[in-house]
Amino acid sequence: MPRALMLWMAAAAAALAQDTTSAPGDFTTLHAQLCKKEKWESVPWKTDFYDAQAESIRDKKPIFIWAMDGQTLGCT
Amino acid sequence: MVDRASTFTDDETLELLRKKFIAYAPSVTEMLKAKGPAGDLFRKVVNQRPEPAHTKQGYYLCSPDGTLLKGWMYPRPDDGTMKRYLKEVLASYDAPKNVGAMDTSKADHHAAPLPPEGATVVEVSAKLIDAEWQQTKVERLKMIRGAIGRDRLWITKAEIQELLKGVLPDSLLERVVRYHFIDNTRGVASCWQPASLKELGIQTSRENGKLKVEASVRLEEGDRYFTATLEGIIETKGDVLSRFDLLARGSHSQRTMHVGELPLGESTLAIAFTLAARGESAKVPPLYSYDPWNYLKTEHLRVTDLRKAAKGPRGVEER
Predict the structure, then answer these.
(1) What is the ipTM score, two decimals?
(2) B31·A53 Cβ contact <8 A
(3) Residue where a domain terminates, one of B76, B106, B136
(4) Which positions in chain A touch B152 (Cβ < 8 Å)?
């Protein structure tokens, strides 16, 4: 991880800790734990079929559809 | 949720999806109803899959002309089937020629609602941080007990104007509590009805453009309750909402099972809010945005009634 990003994250965590009434680090740790991106979110998922189909034509790649009830990338 | 915890934790599968495919993830419910070319093409693809007959949920590999290359739903959790299918399709894929892009002027925005003009999108993440479970040998149940439920919150332009003045609007607080204080970690959960918000105590203070929020709520409806605190910071810079870091946590209990399994007794549910990054993530609609009239309601709010009742003789909110 680039040093600048690490420093920024540490500064952000410290600022957040000072802003809340929770025990030091508690709010920050839990908030960061919940908001942290998961592996499945590393895929550049598209939300619009028009975009996906146009990009598939342009890049000559097949389309992978992951389709669930609710919102597949949100509450599902 | 099972997919997120199983199939989509495999590095090779994720690399294939990132590099070799165009990955698209819609709401199957909405796309089956969608009008226009995208709905037609989606139905053409999914209707080519014969099994399972009871649902169109699942996975599809197709070419841009709508030809189904593979379609499946099971096994869940995945046993390597997905990676095998991805490789098989890649090995034989011959991109069709003379396929035109769909006409976007006929897009059906009801199928993929966009935030109201000028709105800001917030990511909402929920997790059971302390829960006791019945013993089970069912792997797909065990693997999502620690899952993080994701949703989005919309903050309207009018609400941002209030936040710029250092005021937390009732409509925003009501939306946060009723639609996002839910346990969606193992599937879709019901929102709270207005009368289910039994108690609300809130204090806000403003300093250097930062609005500090401390609140407590009690929600109760049938055999479900959530008693929680809410705290955090909302910050504005110029006329922009630059930070929305809130965290709710408290005791949650539910006895009726709507989806998946339920923890035994009371569990600790935590819900975090933070601004969504620009791009595709911000285009995912909140679950309850399919009912925009209620989701974006600004009048006759339960929060307004409770905040008025909480004001003491000096006209300030008391906890």
Answers:
(1) 0.89
(2) no
(3) B106
(4) 74
